Each structure stands twice: as C-alpha cells, then as structure tokens.
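Long-time lurker. I teach an intro course on protein structure, and each term I like to show students one example going from raw sequence to a predicted 3D structure in token notation. This year I'd like something fresh instead of my usual example. Would anyone be willing to generate the tokens for the chain below so I can use it in lecture? Attribution to the forum is fine with me.
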Amino acid sequence: MYLLVGTAKGLFRYHSDDRTEWTALPPVLQGDEVYTTSYDVDTKTLYAGANSVFHGANVRRSRDWGENWDTGGSGLEYTADDPERVTRVWSLRPAGGGRVYAGVEASGLFRSDDGGDTWAEVRGLREHPTHETWEPGFGGKCLHTIAVDPFSADRLYIACSSGGIYRSDDDGDSWQPINQGIRAEFMPDDMQYPESGQCVHKFWLSPTTAGRLWLQNHGGVYRSDNGGDDWEYVGESLPSDFGFPVVGHPANPDCAYVLPVQRWPRWAPDNVLAVYRTRDAGQSWEALHNGLPQPSFSGVLRDAFTGDTETPFGLYFGTTSGAVYHSADEGVTWHLVAEDLPRIYSVVVAAEG
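-- Reply from a regular --
Happy to contribute to a lecture. Here you go:
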C-alpha cells in the first residue's frame, strides 16, 4: 500500500505492507504544487496534478509508483479566445476504460478517453447558465471534487468553489445544480439559499448505497439520500460546522468523518485537533483524538483527508503544518507517519491491486 502526500513543494511517498510501519521513499515532482493524485487500478497508472510556476498546470503519469514520470498529455487548456485560463489541476478521477477526469482552476472539467494522452473540456458544465454566478473562494476558483456514480455510468457529480455542487445524468452533456437546501451563510439573509453560488468545500459519494452523499460546506455539514435532490443539515452537535474535508465509510453509509475548524483562524476548535465520526447518519458525532498532538494550531485542507478500503477501515490526513497521521482502526487511535513536510494539499492511499 502506498500513501501519497501532495504538498506545496512536491509529492511525498510512503509504503507499508501492514498499515503499521511506513517506509519513506524519495520525494518526487520536487518544486511543483501537487493538489491531487489518483491511482487507476485497471491500467496501473498513477496520475498527479503538477502545478509548476515555470511550466504551468499539467497531469503527469507514472507506471512505477512515481519513480519515473512522463511530461503530460495535450489539450488541458481553454481556447485562446476564452477569458479564463487553466492555472492549476485540483482533482483527478479515473473512470475505467482509459477515461480520466480532471478538475481545474478556473473551474472547469476536462476528460481524457486515452489515459491522459489527450484532453478535451466537458463544455456543458461551464456553458450552464449559472456559470456567471461562480466566484473564486479563498483558495481560488477551483473544481475540486469529481465523482462517477457506481450505480449509473452516465451520472457524474462535481463541486466547485464557489459555484456549488452539480450533477449530470447524461455523461456530462448537460448539468443541473443540486444545491437545494444548502445554505450560503456569507450571503444576505434573504439570499442564503440560491440555485448556485454556494461554497461547497468537499463531498463524498457512497460506493455501496445509491444516492447517499455527504457534504462539507463553507458552513454546514449535510447528508443527501437521493443523489443531491434534497439535503439535510446534520452539523448541530459538532463544535464547529465549518471545515474542509469529509470522508464516508466505504461499507457503512451512515458513518462519516469530518475535521472541524474554526471559521477564523482556520484551526481546530479550542485548539483540540480531532476527527469527528458519526455512525447514525449525522444525528450525533463523537471526537476521535487518541494519539493526536494537543494543543494544535493546524488545519486540514479539503483533499488532505482520505480513507482506504481495508477491514478495519483505515483513515489518513495531513495538516497545514506538514504532519501526516493515520488510523488503522476506523479512527479510534492515531499514529504519526511523517512531520516537517511542506504545506499539505492532498493525501491519497492506493493499493497495488
């Protein structure tokens, strides 16, 4: 198993045979901002979004777990007459059969059907009438989350900041905003539930229960049971309903994890770094912090928290202060993997398959 940690200055890699002892491998893509990585089990290909101050945004590929990389495919750019530009790659999602999706800044979705050799924009998304309401969040105008519905190959979900969450039921040809019931707390009181413009920070789609979604908003944690047609607020018992990542349990749809932070400054409430878990679909939450350092003044960004598919379920997160922690017992106990890394943007775990 590999743990892939994307940072402000490259990709750091760790390997383990037992999820207990982790061996550090040499860092790669040094100097690049790595906001996202993803592993395609079918083609044994590791993808990384490498954002270079010299070479711009690119999707790099490796077939030996990062020892060697290609220079990236062509077409990951808007047309010359487009007022927006592709400046960073934020999200990568292999979809089988050589298809890969890339979410970029400024908020757009690209698709490759040849494993990343060539890219083309999924134009229907930015052509949606609500696109004019999308504004940059604090981190930029980014399309940061992509999910392919395991129960319907033509159904896709994306989230962008700050535009909200959108769904396509026809393989990306057309899109609809599914933000009904999600509060945009930063808007005037009479405008807090718009069709689009919400600053969705992250969502997670269940692989085992059709229609179950968990969502961490700019303010608020939500659950949907019908593919985003409706949302229920479930953040009442959290110390803060503000945060960035959310991770669901792969086998238990009623179990999910969040990492609350204060709205400002962006660190844990009362300086207590803790992962919060619900096992009753959001009715209650429990703090899990055994093994985590206290007090803490770190935050965790939207893509810096993830889980594996092992039994028991394993969890992994990286902090803005450069530490990586893992739990092999569903969050009950935590252990340090690495520290003193650059600012951490993404954490991904991948099995060799």
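Some talking points for your students: The two ends are 9 Å apart (CA to CA). The mean pLDDT is 96.
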